[in-house]
Each structure stands twice: as C-alpha cells, then as structure tokens.
Amino acid sequence: MEVKEESSTISYLTHEQAAEIDDLLMDQLGFSIHQLMELSGLSVASAIAEVYGPRKYNNVLVICGPGNNGGDGLVAARHLHHFGYKPSIYFPKRTPKPVYEGLVTQLESLSVPFLSMENLSEQLLNFDILVDAIFGFSFQGDPRPPFDDLIHSISCFGEHYQGHQKYPVVVSVDIPSGWHVENGDISGKGIKPDMLVSLTAPKLCAKRFDGPFHFLGGRFVPPSIISKYKLQLPAYPGTSMCVEIGMPTQINIENPVSQKLIEKSVEDDPFVQFQKWLDDAMEAGLKEPKIMSLSTANKDGKPSSRMVLLKKVDKGGFVWCSNYGSRKGREISENPHAALLFYWNALNRQIRVEGFVKKVTEEESEQYFCSRPREIQIAPAVSNQSTVVPGRDFLHQQCKEFEEKYPEGSMIPRPQSWGGYRLIPERFEFWQGDESSVHIRLKYFTEDTDGKKAWTII
C-alpha cells in the first residue's frame, strides 16, 4: 500500500503545455505513438490492478474513442486480459490507421469481445469496471453520437438505473470525458469517475477531481522535459508504472472512521467487512493470508497462543481443524472462550475476533478431512499433538506403516480425535495503522434487541 503524494507539490499542465510535451516526445525525443500508447495503457491497467483486483472486479468494459485516448484504452484492455481480468471493448469509431488496426488484431487474437451499440446501455450494469477512454485533453466541443448518450448514462447512473444496489466503478483515462481540460466539468454533464489515471502529468482539470483514487502514469517522462517545464512529479515506487497521488490523509480525531477505513465503505455486518479485508489481503498477493493466531486459556485462565489456518468463514463463525487432544483442544474443553488475530503487515491491518468455541458436526469434520490431500490426511492419523515422541524417525516409520495399511486408492479414515472447531464471534475489532500514529479502530459487538442479537459499531 503506497503512501499518496501530496497533490499540492505536483505540477498540473495547461492544454497548451500538454500538447507541447506530446509534440516534443514524438519529435525531438524519438518516441513513437505506438510506444506512448503502450506505456500509457500499461500505466492505466497497473493503476486499476492496484485498487480493483480481478477476483472481485473481473468484468471490465473499455470504452474507446477515436483518438489517442482510445488507443490507450485498447492497450490497457490487453494488459488487463493478461492480469486475469475479462475485458470487453466498445470501439464504435474505429480509426483506420495501422497502430489502431494492430491493437484490434492483438485483442481479437486473445478472443477479447468487441461489443456493438445495440442494447449497450442496458448491459453497463453487467460490468464491474467501466474504463472511460473516450476523449483526451485534445478534444474540444460537445460530445457527438454515439458517445453523448453513453457519457450521459454513465454520469447519471442513479437516475438511469434506479433500484440497483450496485453500479460499476468508473475509471477515466487522463481526462474524464465531458470535462474541459483546464476548467473541469463546467457543464455538469461529464463523467464523474471513481478513479482518474492522469498521464505524463496531471492536467489542470484534475484539481477538481474529488473521487477516491487518483493515479499518475508517466514514468517515461525524460529529465529534459521535467527541467524545461519545471515539473514536480512524484517518485515511482519499485518497478511500478503508476503512483497514487492526491490530498494527504487527514485524520478526524473526533470521528476516526472517516478516512482510510471507509475509502471503500464500512459495512454494517462485520462478516462482510472481514471478507472485504480478507479479499484485499489475497488480492495483494500476501503469503498465507488465512493464517490466524488462536489464543485459548485453561480453566485457571492461563493463556496460550498458536498459529492455525482458517478453513472457512461464514455467518456461523470461523472454522479451523485440529486434534481434539492437543493443548488447545483440552483448553477449549475446559474454557470455550477464545480469540483470533489476523495480521497483515504489508497492509498495516489487523482484525481481532473474540467469542466462544464449539466443535463442528461430525459431517462437517468428515467433509474437511476428505478435502485434504492424501499426504496431509496421513499426518493427523499418526500424530498425537502435544505428546512426546521418541523422534522424527518414529513419526516417519508410523507414516510408512500407515501408507502400507492404506495403499494408494484406498480411503483413509478420519481419526475420531481430529475435527473442526468453530469460533462464534461476540466481538470484532478492525485496526488500520497510520503513519501519524493516530490509528483507526472499528469495533463491533452484539446487543440483544427485542430478543434478537444485532451488531453495533463503535
């Protein structure tokens, strides 16, 4: 998770400056239009992948205009395909130039579908992401068909699709379509994106962008241009082609759940909030995101902790599997109260869950056991957790004898001492770290209301 660059320290380009820089790149500095489209499209795809991972936001519609912005969109679609998304293209005004024809051929070779105008407005809600690659900074005047109606539909989702609870997120390339390059959405009819990906350097209109995510893709800008125009541009992290920019995070001390934690909204249901954070951890590629610390205590209140693997989570609670005769199993039988802790260092997040534990049904334990690979089924069958053994050779010999008893192809019976546990939560705490050390905590606890349990957030 990268820290946003403060937008007040970043340069913004006028229309004239943006046009001059494009001319310099393609004239004196040797860039071809093919190269600039490739770099820009990769930046857009990378920015999308930073925030909207393909597991949750898989179906993408890239709407391409007839100019360079449309070419950037075609390149972005190709990269999104290779990133694991399912892109579709709407490209009604195809430009008869080799660079565009080549990009179309590349996408067709990947079986990326090109959609027609017929019923397109009705299909918009079928997508998770809409990429607005219609008009760039060089466009002037009012949008013409078929883009005028499409821009209007996207900018007025709530009016056009009343009753729908979920709308696609909208990502605009360089300039939200319908905006003036310097003055922004002066007509009030332009697209209002959730994410803006500025290219080379932000244009003046980006100062009026108030969506949650603003990225810059412009790692290709040579030092000579930076010097000539006295540009202040952010450093790009690692090998990334994009960097998030925007206003620095302001923590409201009286209402700390107002910034980072609700950038993607806080859910009323802690199980839904947990799943969102778990999805974030998995999409970030973290190693073993389902590993959790399980803390138990015996009847005297003496605690112990260990790491276990989350097998399942649903409205009924958090499930893991273990030997019932292990220390944790014995402590749970004496004192069913326990706590779980998930910690994702790279995201600066942790979740604490407290509640009471009970065994899952025999049927559930059987299902979990049968879902394990054969070699992992053998381990609990020969190992009595928390007991002393003569050495590793003893365990290896036990495994060998067990494999001989149950050869490949035969069913390994589940030991009666092994099965699942379910922690039924009574309290959640979501913690988001912050560099200011004013950390954010969001707590859920149950209250009885008219004989029914309901979650309360503090």
Tally of strands: 17
Q: Spell the H/E element sequence.
A: EHHEHEHHEHHEEEHEHEEEEHEEHHHEEE
Ranges where pLDDT stays below 50 over 5 or more residues in a row are 1-7, 158-164, 247-261
**Cα distance, first to last residue?**
26 Å
Q: Quick one: biggest sheet? A: 9 strands, antiparallel
Q: How many alpha or pi helices?
A: 13
Helix-strand makeup class: alpha/beta
Question: Radius of gyration, Cα only, in angstroms?
Answer: 27 Å
Average pLDDT works out at 85
Helix content: 25-40%
Short key terms for the protein model shown above:
458 residues, alpha/beta, 9-stranded antiparallel sheet, 8-stranded mixed sheet, 29% helix, disordered N terminus
Secondary structure topology:
Blueprint: E1 5-6, H1 15-26, H2 33-51, E2 59-64, H3 68-82, E3 86-90, H4 98-109, H5 120-123, E4 129-133, H6 147-155, H7 157-160, E5 169-173, E6 195-199, E7 213-217, H8 223-228, E8 243-246, H9 270-283, E9 291-297, E10 303-309, E11 312-314, E12 317-323, H10 327-334, E13 337-344, E14 349-359, H11 362-370, H12 374-382, H13 392-405, E15 418-432, E16 440-449, E17 452-457
Parallel strand pairs: 1-8, 2-3, 2-4, 4-5, 5-6, 6-7
Antiparallel strand pairs: 7-8, 9-10, 9-13, 11-12, 12-15, 13-14, 14-15, 15-16, 16-17
Helix pairs in contact: 2-3, 3-4, 12-13
What does this structure look like?
This protein is α/β, with parallel strands linked by helices. Helix content is 29%, strand content 24%. The protein contains 13 helices and 17 strands. Strands 9, 10, 11, 12, 13, 14, 15, 16 and 17 form a 9-stranded antiparallel β-sheet that branches. An 8-stranded mixed β-sheet has the order 1-8-7-6-5-4-2-3, covered by helices on one side. The protein is elongated. The N terminus is likely disordered.
